[in-house]
Amino acid sequence: MFNRQKAIIIGGGISGKLAARVLSDFFKEVIVIERDNRPIGPFPRKGARQGEHIHALLLAGQYGLERLFPGITEKFYTTGAVEMNSTKDLSWFHHGVWKLRYDGHYRTTLQTRPHLEWHIEQSIDNLSNVTVFYNQSVRNILYHAKKNRVYGVEIVDKEKNIRTLTADLIVDASGSSSITTSWLETLGIQIPREQAEIGLTYVSKFYQLPDNKTRDWKIKMIYPDPPAEKIGGTVSLVEGERYTVTIMGYQNAIKEKEVVKNDQGFLELAKKLPQLDIYHEIKDGTPLSATSIYRIPKIIWKRFDQVKQLPNGLMLIGDTICRIDPVFGQGMSIAVFEALALQKIFQDGNCSLQKNIINFHKKARRIISPIWNMVVTEDFRYPGIIDKKPISLSIQQWYAKKIFLLSSQHQDIYDSFAKVMNLLEPMTILIKPEILKRVLRHTFSKK
């Protein structure tokens, strides 16, 4: 069954766990190096500071996760996660209009990130050839210069004990602040980057909301209408009959010190949303947690696929390659897509390990590129994020805005848009002749 001996994965977050699941089918032994303590339940962990904030696994990501871990979706529900109808149970104010609500027969899951990650963790525990080394950090990558090959890592525990591990494959899934980029730079290897300074801040709090028989949604989203509006928010039912409330602000629009002073500070921030719906929901609610802050100063795509001299035996995955704007909820789904791509690459043919690595980086580029373009089309509506906008960007933004507005009037257009947002279909379905005609009619007939 196994044609290779050992793989080492740096980082035990979602991308690292998914990589471990896939590689366990192709390597005799898989070792995951994780800085955090061994989890004891579905609780936030230090190494995933975003874990206390709103998370979403889009439809395509959920379907892919089920392929990797058959039965995991049902486990989510039996332990408290919330099943929702993605177009009926979502109340969404977007670019100044409310989206239509109807039964599109799309089912997805509302849950906290710790809840989702805990179930993945338990599935990984059942893999006999996967070992997770907790409370360990990678302090150095072992490299054979003449062969241009990575062959292991030096790890250190909390007591400063150091040991060396060697492997056929080293996978860096440790995130945007990984050791790999700086280490490669010491070798004189520069990583091309695409990035944008978005100045995004997440502020979140858990609430118990009073009973309300008129509450006909499971998640409500209030999105800003850029560039004039910079603050948006979401309130979502999650496991434990709790609601998680996340308010986000672009370009450092949120004054954090005022928000964290007390519960009233969070309520005052909710009053600044384009609609007061979330404020009215939580003003009589009971706070269940302290206020959490998470900052995303910039989004960045490290183009490892363009590096010709990347050392052999080294593969990058997840946020180590691309840290995307989390507001759109695509990060975890990208991780799932990459894991499925990795699985297919190893399943297909008898390529060398290095050829598989090269093929994966190319496939990761194809996964990320359309999602990155979708995200920056929206982020770049704010002035100052980039110095100069390409001409085509203005056209894309104009067309996207038309789709947003028409999604409040036409079910078929919203249905197509929902498929694109959930990564079920490519953006090209939004330029089908019948949709294009509606956009042009809306443009030239509107007074």
Automatic annotation (TrEMBL):
<dbReference type="GO" id="GO:0071949">
    <property type="term" value="F:FAD binding"/>
</dbReference>
<dbReference type="InterPro" id="IPR002938">
    <property type="entry name" value="FAD-bd"/>
</dbReference>
<dbReference type="InterPro" id="IPR036188">
    <property type="entry name" value="FAD/NAD-bd_sf"/>
</dbReference>
<dbReference type="Pfam" id="PF01494">
    <property type="entry name" value="FAD_binding_3"/>
</dbReference>
<feature type="domain" description="FAD-binding">
    <location>
        <begin position="6"/>
        <end position="344"/>
    </location>
</feature>
<protein>
    <submittedName>
        <fullName>Glutamate synthase subunit beta</fullName>
    </submittedName>
</protein>
